[in-house]
Each structure stands twice: as structure tokens, then as C-alpha cells.
Write a structure and sequence with these properties.
The chain is α+β, with helices and mostly antiparallel strands. It has one domain: Aminopeptidase, CATH 3.40.630.30. Helices cover about 30% and strands about 30% of the residues. The chain has eight helices and eight strands; from the N terminus they run H-E-E-H-H-H-H-E-E-E-H-E-H-E-E-H.
């Protein structure tokens, strides 16, 4: 079950970090995000490589807007984050306790803004929002195993590699490729002891 529609409403936007601002995406952000998502070096790792017109149309769909955050530096968009809140698997008798407690993360950044630590700063802020504001207990992120910058970012954020799957992901150009999944629990996040009082 997708629980994003209520998730973003529980956060006081915009959220500021030392150098960046995070805010929910609006339909008017479509063209700006296409500037980096349309680049071959970026979209080769994304789940879809639509035409510009198809992308601009799909970006404005409520479900897409409900899961996308814009990362700004000095008031200009430089990246986007994806947050998909989901239910955890649970046995029937305790399923109500598993609703909306997990989330999947994703990110893209304008290549001209890479190597400055912006992605790490933005995703770190999103992780903090998930654990501190949204009551998420477990986060996951996945990528192709050859996408080293992506999994290195997960490791910098303290995420744990939980899955290395051989030839499980079909890439549109490279065929079957290995995939990696990282995860992080709220109890593992720095400051968890102080937040929970444990």
C-alpha cells in the first residue's frame, strides 16, 4: 500500500540543510528536472528513459508528485529525491502495525552539481525526516551493482548492504545485471537513542 499522500503533509516545508533546501515537487518542476534526468549519464540508471514530452506529462501525475522532493541550491533545482512510503510485510493478526512504516528512497542529481557532497547532504536530510517526522522504521534503496556512485552514497549514509542479487535486474541496454539493496533501521540512525529515550 502506498502511503505517500499523507506523508509529506506531516512535514513543515521547506526543509533547510547547511547548503540546500528540500521541498515537495510541483508540476512546474518538470522541465527543470528533465534537464538532468534527460541526460544519458543519468537516465541510464533510472527505471525509465521516456521522451521529453512523455516525461513532462507523467511528472504532473498526482502519484508522482506525491513521492518527489526537489533539492535546491541557492533557489535553483539541482536534484530530486524519491520517497515511497509502504507497508511492511506482516502476518494478518498484526498487519495494522505494519502500515506505512517502511520507505524506499531514490535520488538523481544534476551531474554538474556532483562531487560537492550535495547528494549526501540531501539524502541524509530525507532520512532524518523519515525517522524523526514520519515514523518510518526501515528504509531501503536499490541500484544496479555497477552503479558504484549510488551504492557508495548508501554506504556513506550508514546504510547496510543486505542483498547482492546475481543477474536479477534487466537493463534496457546491458541485459541482465546484478542488483544491490541497502537498508537502514531507525534504531541505527545517529541520534536514535536520544530520540527514542532508549
Amino acid at each position: 500500500m502506498d502511503d505517500n499522500y499523507g506523508a509529506f503533509a506531516r512535514i513543515d516545508w521547506p526543509v533547510h540543510t547547511a547548503r540546500l533546501t528540500l521541498r515537495p515537487a510541483e508540476a512546474s518542476d518538470a522541465a527543470a528536472t528533465w534537464e538532468w534526468r534527460g541526460l544519458p549519464e543519468v537516465n541510464r540508471w533510472l527505471s525509465a528513459a521516456p521522451s521529453r514530452d512523455d516525461y513532462l506529462s507523467a511528472f504532473a501525475e498526482p502519484r508522482r508528485l506525491a513521492s518527489t522532493l526537489i533539492v535546491e541550491r541557492d533557489g535553483a533545482p539541482i536534484g530530486d529525491l524519491m520517497l515511497r512510503v509502504t507497508d511492511a510485510w506482516a502476518q494478518a493478526e498484526v498487519a495494522d502495525q505494519a502500515r506505512g512504516v517502511q520507505a524506499e528512497l531514490g535520488w538523481t542529481l544534476d551531474p554538474s552539481e556532483q562531487s560537492y557532497g550535495y547528494a549526501t547532504e540531501a539524502v541524509r536530510a530525507l532520512i532524518g525526516l523519515c525517522f524523526d517526522c514520519l515514523g518510518i522504521r526501515r528504509l531501503e534503496a536499490s541500484c544496479f551493482a555497477v552503479n558504484e556512485p549510488s551504492w557508495r552514497l548508501m554506504e556513506r549514509l550508514g546504510m547496510r548492504r543486505e542483498l547482492y542479487a546475481v543477474a536479477e535486474s534487466l537493463h534496457r541496454e546491458h541485459g541482465w545485471m546484478d542488483g544491490i539493496t541497502y537498508a537502514l533501521l531507525a534504531s541505527e540512525w545517529p541520534g536514535a537513542v536520544e530520540r527514542t529515550g532508549r
